[in-house]
Each structure stands twice: as C-alpha cells, then as structure tokens.
Design a protein that fits this description.
Blueprint: H1 3-23, H2 42-71, H3 80-109, H4 116-131, E1 142-147, E2 153-155, E3 170-175, H5 183-200, H6 202-215, H7 221-244, H8 246-256, H9 260-263, H10 275-289, H11 293-305, H12 313-334, H13 346-350, H14 357-369, H15 371-376, H16 379-391, H17 397-433, H18 452-457
Parallel strand pairs: 1-3
Antiparallel strand pairs: 2-3
Helix pairs in contact: 1-2, 1-3, 2-3, 4-5, 4-17, 5-7, 5-8, 6-7, 7-8, 7-10, 7-12, 8-10, 8-11, 8-16, 10-11, 10-12, 14-16, 16-17
Length: 459
Amino acid sequence: MAPEPYAFWTLEQEARAMLCRLRRLRSFALQETMVPAASVSVEAQSAIERFLVSGRRALHGQIRKFVHWLRSPEVHGATAAEAHRRFTLLRLRFNVVLSDFDIFSEALSQRSESDNGVWLAGLDVVSRDALELSGVIDAPPVICYLARGPGAAIRRARTRLPGGGQNPVAIIRVPRERMVGTGIASSLVHEVGHQGAALLDLLPSLRDDLADARDTGGSDQAAWTLWQRWISEIVADFWSVARLGAASTAGLIGVVSLPSAFVFRIDPDDPHPAPYIRVKLSAAIGDKLYPHPQWRRLASMWESFYDRGRLPPARRGLFERLEKSIPTFVERLAGHRPARLGGRSLAEGLADPERHASRLSRLYDLWQTRLPLMARAAPTLAFAVLGQARLDGRLSPEKESELTASLLRHWAWRSTVDVTEVCAVANLDQRRRAPRGLPRRAPAAFPTFPAPQALAAAP
C-alpha cells in the first residue's frame, strides 16, 4: 500500500476508535451508585448532563465529518500531513471532553461513599441557602466534594473551564479535615461568598472605591494598596461573617492557625490577606455587623497566640498601619452600595438581625427543648446557632459533631423528599388534566433483530 493511502486508512481507523471511546462516556445517572439522599440537586444534574452531552455531541459530529472527508474524493488533493493535522485537533478536542467529564466525575463519585455522600448533599443545601438573596441573585446550582488540605476552593459557575466551555454549576472543594463540625460552614460559606460577589459584580466597584482611598491615603497608602489587592478574599470573608456570625471567625482561626512565619507573611502574588490581619479583620467585620464584646475577645485571643513585637521593624510598622486602618476600611466596605443591591449597602443587604450573638443564644435555648425547630431553620442560621453555642461553652465538641452530622443528613433527606413530592404531584396533576375518552396509545413496538444464525451467516 502506498504511504499516503496507508496513512489515510490508519487515521480513519484511529478516528473510528476514538468514536467508540467517546460513545462509552455515559450519563452519570447510569453509572453512579448512591442512595437518593446523596444525589446532587435536580438542577445540578440537569445542567451538568446538558453541558457534557452538548460537548460529546459536537465532537461526535466532527469525528464523523472527518471520517466522511477521508472517504470522499476531496481527500485526493490532500496530503497525509494535512489529514494528520485535522486528526490531532480532534484528539485534542477529545481530551477536552474527557477533562470536562473528569471535573464533574471527581465531585460526583464521592456521593457513593457511606456517610460522606449524604453529608455532601447536606452541604449542597447549606450552600444554596448561603447564596440566597431573594430577588437579587439568580443562584446557579452548587455541588460540593471533599479534598485533602486545610483550605476550601471554588470553581465558580459561569466561568471558563479548562477546555473553554462555561461551567454550568458552582463546584466547591471542601477540606476533608473539617468533616464534620460547624467549622466546615466557615470554609464553605467563604467559597459561596466568591460566587455571590461575582453574581453581584462587587469587585470592580470596590476596587475603584479602594483606589480612591489609596490615592488619598497619605502615609497609609501602602495599607490601602494591600486592601485593594486582597479585596476578593475579604468580600468572601464578609459574606461568611454575615451568614454565620462568630462561627465564621472561629472557623477561620482553625484554618489559619499556622507557625508565625506563615501568619505574618505578605506575598505580593497571594490574594489572601496575611493570616494575622485576616482574623483581626474578620472580627472587626463581625463587630460592625453584629456588635458584641465577643469580637474583641476573639481578637485578643488571636493576638495572644503570636508576638508581633518579634517582627523586623519595617514589617512590624506595616502591620501596625494595617491594623490602624482596619476600622476605616471596614466602614468603607460595609457602606459600599453596589448597583445590584438597589441602593442598599453591603451591610444592609447581607446582615441579618437573627445572627446577632444574643439572638443566637436565645435560639439555642429554645432549640434544646424543641430540636425539630433546628432542622426546619435555614441551614446557615442553624450553623450560626451551633457555632455561637460552642463559643459560649454551652456545646461540647462531641455534641456539636453529632448535631452537625444529623442536620446534614436531615437536609439531604428533606431536599430529596421535597423534589420527589413535587415531581409526583406534578405528574398526578398532569394525568388528571389529560382529556378523557381518548383511545389508549399503543405501546411502542420493540425493534426486531436478526436471529443468531442469520448474524453468523452474514458476511
């Protein structure tokens, strides 16, 4: 066989083999083994499947078109190099499809794990509640999964995936070390805050506002430059404190309690504030939203862990300027009025009087004798109450873990049952409204296939 015809034949074989592998990528609904309560939401399932099917369908058509081209008269004027170039582009596209599939597969495969799968479904419910701003945010579906390491992360919905497509759901990576206690809520709601900030388009207007403060900051110009650099993480912390109260700051302390070299480190390329400043800022935000002596107590405890006086003079001076500017910065942040909030400030749009320490303590008193009320409360409120009780010394770590696990299981179960009931009622209503007296529709005939003998005799 001449080199070029042989090359064309080889490329066709490879393309058809790729087509076979592509067809073996099946819907997650056909391959994931999980109890119903561990499933992701119907909205998330639908969005993921639509996205993946669209990518596979497009690639399927491109491969078939390539094979058709190899068999057509047009190929006679082409070189083997041209055909190979087309094939390699298809192969790159195939790997993009696999990459997209694996992103969601990693998140969904854990739903089959005992306990963890149901807890993750419960965290999905908490995430949806944390993102809720009625009439303001068109919240995307959210799914959570576990990963090693102390920190959480988010792949935001409606952002570009590695392959170029738009992510249909928010995917939150939760640190496995935080399963399971109220501290998980601090990491989770912080990541939700990143999604919320994007949906409200907060960062551009905040950066402009902070640039004005920097330009007029005088001797504090370096501090305002850092606030502007760190604003994306600070807004996420603001969101978390607004939703969880002191449980957010306590959870943050659990994450960033590190050796002094890391706690006082300022990295020009890191969007996270230095941990020492970040905790102080979280407490100051809490005191602004929900004034109470507990915030100063938390800040003082954090200061007692680290000796700032041992820093080199230049770095110590920078931290002093940052701390000095915290009250002014928090006032500016809380009073910022983004266009999407319709004239309300961030504090007015996100803070909830129910999350004040005194109110949370009263709710805990009430719930101790009426536990079902806790299960029916908004998930972030329940976490805020348990976190406050833990800080007040009224809830032991053991009881906290037990209650948190029970709540996550309940929310996962309730969400599943609610969806099932809605679907059942809708189906029953549709059947009742169907016209009566119409002839029954005959069942579709099954396709017929040749007998095994005929297959054996086929060439």
